[in-house]
Amino acid sequence: MEEYHPGDEVAFNPDEASNCVKECIEGIIGGVDYSQNKVNQWTATIVEHSLTQLVKQGKPFKYIVNCAVMQKSGAGLHTASSCYWDTTTDGSCTVRWENRTMYCVVSVFAVAVTL
Amino acid sequence: MSDLAKEKAARLLKKRGSLSSLGSHDIKAKETVGKTKDSISTVSYIDDPGHHDDNPRPAVQMENTYQLGPTRRFPVTAVNDILKDVLASYLQEEKYEAELCRQMTKTISEVVKARVKDLMIPRYKIIVLISIGQLGNQNMRMGSRCLWDAANDTFSSHTFKNSSLFAIANVYGVYSE
Question: CB–CB of B138 and A70 under 8 A?
C-alpha cells in the first residue's frame, strides 16, 4: 500500500500525464491502419492502459480519461471542455495523435482527492 | 521553430490565459514491408493566467464535515435534459463550418457548465466535454473510463445529429469529500 502524506498537495502535472498517454497510444495503435472491427477494442485498450499508467504515478487524484478515434476522411472535428473545479489542485490535458489513416484524441481530467 | 522559441511562445500564451499548443512533433517513420507510416502527436492544455507561474497557494486545510456522503446526489436525468435542450437549440439549424463550430464548442461547453452549476448541487465538481464533428464518410469511436468513487460520482452523456454535423456532450460529476 502506498503512503499518502496529508498536506502534500501537489497540483496536477500535465506534462507527465501527456507523456504517459502518448506512450500508451503509440504502443497500441502505433503502426497500424484504421480498421472498423478493431477500433472498439483499441479505444477500450487505450483508455484502460492510460488509466493504469496514471494510477501507477501514485498521486491522490480521481481520473477521467476520454478517447476518440476517428478515421481520416477530410471531415473536421472540434472538441472543447469546460470545468468547474479547484484550479490550484485539479487539471486536465489533451493529447492529439495522428497517423496516415486516423486521428486519436485523448483527454485526461484529474480531480484532487482531499485526504 | 526552435524548442526554446516554442517554449517562450507557450509561456507567453499561458500568461494570456489562452490555449497553448506545445507542438512536440515527433515524426516517426516506421518501415514496414516498404510502407512508411507517419505519426505526429501534439499536446495542449488550457491554463488560467498565472496558474503555473505564481507561487502556488498554500493548500487549504479543510475542516472535518463528518458527512459520510453527499446530501444531494448528481441528478443524471436533469443534466441529460439540459444537454438535450442546449444541443438542440444551438445546433438544430446549423451547417458544419470550421470557424463557427470551433466557437460553438467553446460556447456550448460554457453554457452547459453554467446551467449545471445553476442546479446548485453542493460539493460536486463538474467537467463538461463537447465534441462537434462534420458528417462525412468516416467512422468514429469514442470511449471513456474513469477512476473514481462509483458510489458518489457519475456522468451524463448525449449525442445530437443533423444533416451536416454531429455533436457529443459528456458531463462528469465528481464528489469532493
Answer: yes
